Structure formats: C-alpha cells, structure tokens
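Recap from last week: sequence in, structure out.
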Amino acid sequence: MLFNKKAFSRLLPVLKQIPLGRVLTSVLLTATIISAVFTYVVLTNPSLIDFTTDPAFQSSLLIVNLGLLLLLAILISRKLVKLWLVRGTGRKGSRLLLKLVFMFSLVAIVPAIIVGLSSSYYLNLGIKSWFDERVSHAIVESVAVADAYLEEHKKVINADAVNLANEISNNAIQFAFNQEKLNNYLTMQATRRLLAEIVLFQDEKVVASSQIGMSLDPLQSINPEKLAEAEGGNVVVLSDSNDKVTAIVKMNTFNDTYLLVSRFVDSRVVSHTRRARGAAAEYMKLKRQIADFQINSTIFFVIIALFLLLAAVWVAFLFADKLVAPISNLVSATDRIKRGEFTVRVKENSGKDEIGTLSHSFNQMAEELEKQKRGVIIANREAEEKRQFNEALLGSISSGVIAINEDKRIELLNASAKEHLSLGDNALGKYLKDVIPEFNEAFEEFRERPTKALQKQVTLRRKAKRMTYNVRVNPHMENNAEGYVMTFDDVSELLSAQRSAAWSDVARKIAHEIKNPLTPINLSAQRLAKKFLKTIPEEDKENFEGYTNTITRHTADIARIIGEFSDFAKLPGPKFTKTDISELLKDAIFSAKVAHSKITFDLDMPDKMMTIADAGQVTQVLTNVIKNAAESVKAVRKTGGKISMKAEYDNEIIITIKDNGGGFPEELLDRLTEPYVTTRQKGTGLGLAIVKKIMEDHSGKIELSNVRSGAQVVLTLPVL
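Predicted structure tokens:
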C-alpha cells in the first residue's frame, strides 16, 4: 500500500501537466474520424456488410455519428467563441489564429462538399442501376420458373395420390385381411409411379407402407393443421423437405385412414428456388425502402462532411496554436521591449525551423539591447550625477548661469538665473531670443566674433523695474557638440551705489565751494538795501527793494539746497537704541495731520513694535515719505485726499503707506531712490535717496510701486 501511495505521488505531478481537455478532444476527434470513415466505406460499399441497408443499423449508425458530431461541435464551438472573445480584447495572435482557422476550414470543407456530392451522386446512380426495371423483371421471372418447377411436381404427386387412393379403395376388400399383400401392392405402385414411399396410417400409426420407404418416421413431419385440412377431403401437398414433395389424402373406404405418398425432387433446384424467392422478397423490400435509404445516405454524407469540417477546424486549431503561439510570444515580447522591458526572452523551439531561428535571433537582439540599456543607464547615471554636481555647483554661486546649445535653445538655468529673471523650468528648450531678447543681442554679438569672450552690460525692464546686468558669454564644447555658457551678475545696486557715492562727492564739493560765498552775498544785499534805500529816488525805491529781496530770497534757497547737499553728503551713522516704531508712527501722523489738514489719514498698527533703530533717522524717513505722499495727493486732488498707513509686526516690521495721488512715473520707478532723480520742479531728488540710505543702514529696505488708486511705499525693518 505504501508503494502505491509513493507511485501515485510521483505520478500525480505528471498527470497534472497533461492537458486533459486537449486529450479528451483528441480522443473524441479520433473516434469521430474512425466513425466517419467507417460510415463512408459502408455506405459506398454496401456489399461488405449484409445488414448495411437495415433501417435499424442505419439508425444506430446515424445516432452514433450525430452524438460524436454534437460533442465535437460543442467543443469546437466553445473554442471558437473563446477565440472570438479573445480577439475582441486585442490579444496578440488572436486575429492571425482566427484567419488560419478560417483558411483551414475553407480548404477542408470544399473537398468535403465535392466528395460528399460526388459520392451521393454515384450512390444514387448505383441504386438506380440496382433497381432497374430489367433487373426487377429478371428476378421475378427466375422466381416464377422455380415456382413452376415445384408446382409441376405438386400437380403430378397430387394426381398420383388421388389415383392410388381410388385404386386402394376399389380393392379394399382384397386388402382388408391381407396385410402382406397390401404392402406388396404399395411397393409395386411406388416402383411403377417413381414414388419415394407410400404409407397408409391411422391415428398416427402406420397401417401399411412400401418397402422402399426412406423415412424412419414418415409421420413425424406431418403438421396437425395439414392433417385437419386433409380431413376435409382435400389433397394436401407438403414441400417442407428440401428433396421431396409429399401428398396426403383421406381414404374413403377406411375409417380415419390417410394415404401418404412422396416423390424425390432435385434438392439443388429447391434450394435455388428458396434463395431466389428470399432474394426477390428482400429485393422488393429494399425497393420499397429506396427513398428512405437515399435520404439516410444523404444525411450520412452531410454528417461526414461536417465531420471533416470540424476535424479540419480542430486540426487548424492545433496547427495554428503551434504556429501562432511563438509568433504571439514574439509580438508580446516586442511590445514589452517597446515599453523598456529588455529582460524579456521567448522560448526557443528545439527544432531548426524558421520560427526557432527567429526566436533565437530575437533573444540575441533582446540580450544585446539589455546590454546597451545597462550601458545607457550607467552613462545616464554618470551624466545625471555630473549634472547634479554641476547644478549644485551652479546653485551655490550668486551669478546667474545660462547654458545654450548650438541651436540657440536654453539647456540649463541655475537657481540664481531663475530668480533674477523670474523664469521656471518651462523656459528650458526654448529659444533665447524668445525668453530673454535683451541677452540675445549680446549672444549674437558674441557669435559674430566667437574667438574672443564677450562682456557687456545689459539693462532689463521687468514689471516696471529696471535691472542692469553684467553679461559674459563664453564658448563651451561637450561630446563634440558646440555650446555656450552665459553668466551674468546684477550690478544695479553696485551702479546705484557708485552713482550715490559720486553724487555724494559732488554734493560735498558743491556745498563747500558754494556755501562760502553765499553769506557775503546775502550780507552785501542787506547792506545795500539799508545804506542806499534812503538815497534812491522815490520812483526807484520799489525796484531797488525788489532787487535786493530777490538776491536775499534766492541766496536763501541756494543755502537750503546746499544744506540738503551737505546732509546727503555727510549723513551721520545711526545711533541704535531700543525704539518703539508705533510711537514714531503716531508722532509722524500727528505732525502730518497738522500740516495737511485737508487730507484724511488712516493708521492700522499694533500697540507696540520694538526694534533697535535710530529714532531720529526713522522719524526722518517716515516724515519724508508721508510728505511726498501728501504732495502727490495735493497735486491731483483738491478734496478727498487720503493716506493710509498699515504696520505689521511679525518676523519683520513692515510699514505700508498708500495714497490716492498721481502715483510714481513708471519710467523712473526703479531710479527714484537714486540721488537727483525727481519729478518736481523745485525738488533736489535727495529725499528718497536719503530714505534709502537710512533704511540700508538699518538693514532694511524700501520698495516703491504703483497701485490702482495711487502710489505705495513699503518700508521693512528688522525686529528686536
């Protein structure tokens, strides 16, 4: 028992690997083919089996074939439906498999139809020849001849029986008491009349008989029904034996006595007669069933044709599966390679056919692609590492860097370049002229003389802000591809500082050179007026006084301007102390309300905003900014002027001052904090320059912009 379990455990994995569905279908297909061949042979050669034309045999054969056909049709229909559904899903190879099955079916059904039609035609032609009128007539005539032969013997023996019975009856007295004489008489009559035997019997017992009788028991074969018929006075002729004819007649002179006479006939003639009669009966039976036979035969041929079709479809499935499977695997593997799965391989056939060669070549190609992919991945990884290193290096420098290829497209922007130019990654791949047209001019200028590096200052205006950059262009070669590297630095603040320093130096010199003569001029004008006003005629006094007043007034204006120059040139450093910016804002607003009573002031700020600052300089900043806002409002509005101030206290102190005046000129917006840039006729252009310098000294900043209702100034200071 243990051995059986071990054997079964070893056999079970093998059995699981056997495709039972395919095995059952193959067995069914084999049985169907055998049945179809057997049916075809039997129908086309009915002489091979005697009962071919038997309706029961044909019905049984039809049922067997129909059952096999139905089972095979179900299996193949299931396979076809499954294939059609798979075709709808777009599975690789399903369309080719369907085409192959269709072609195989077409190739198989055409010969099957031709063979079926031709076989049916020749079978019907043979049947017509079998049941021709002349054949029927010959069979009938042969039966009639055989019957006439027997009838002739029956008539002769009938006459002999009657005559012999009459003779015995006439000599009844003579034979009544002489048994031996009767037996001799019967023997003589048998010899004279060529009879096989003569028997007189009564109550199934022999009374007398001829001596040449051949039967051991001549009464054994007498049918009681025939004896009853003879009882009625008729002569009964029996021909049940193969070699003699017997007649029975009742004797009139003897009570319940019968005469039996028999004569030999040719047994071969009798046998032929019986066979002819049986063949004729069978022939007539078949002739009556000829229509059913033709219909059954046609059905059989149709079934055979369907068998061939289904068998062809199944063979097509087997062949197509074997042919299409490796092709489908190749197509699927190709799709996977297209998606980047270079590790895919297909199963190689053991044969040396074209499919095997193709599979082997495909695997070699896939292996080569995998090697190339690994090489590309390694190269890309190295390139990515190099790129990340370069980006990290470029990201750590403050200068903007732009990499440009030979097609003038941007390939790289470091973080500084994106920040300065307000660009994102969407600028990569675009033409330089479309993204930064100002830099493109310097780039084209370099391309005209590429042997020498280019350095040039370029001014950009973005959102009403003008920036100046120092741009450098250098050639770059990598992987035999020509490219360019453009670097730039924001020198706007540097230029502004240079201009401020220059103006500060000029202001210092102007204040020094001009301030000294102003006092003598002013004093001289006052002394002239005091000394000569009384001596000048009355009609010239007014003019003289106007002249001296003009000198005095303008010297005062010049002195004020010189004072501002001096303040700008010699602005002292801040003295930092703890300062509450909220208090400074309140004081500045109070002073502004007094000076500009027709303007509405709004203030929104926390109760306390502490920081380290020079209170005096911060007050100067606030006063200057509010004064500029008030003057801007008065320039465009007689009434309805409004200045709002909002302070936020978080990581920084942010003070926002808005007005509904005329706003800043857009073209000067980025230069209004530079010295001597002004829009007013009597302005010196030093107010905002001083504000900017104070804010920078306090590590803060000032931002100017235009809003919908007017101008906006944002002051930013660090917190304590």
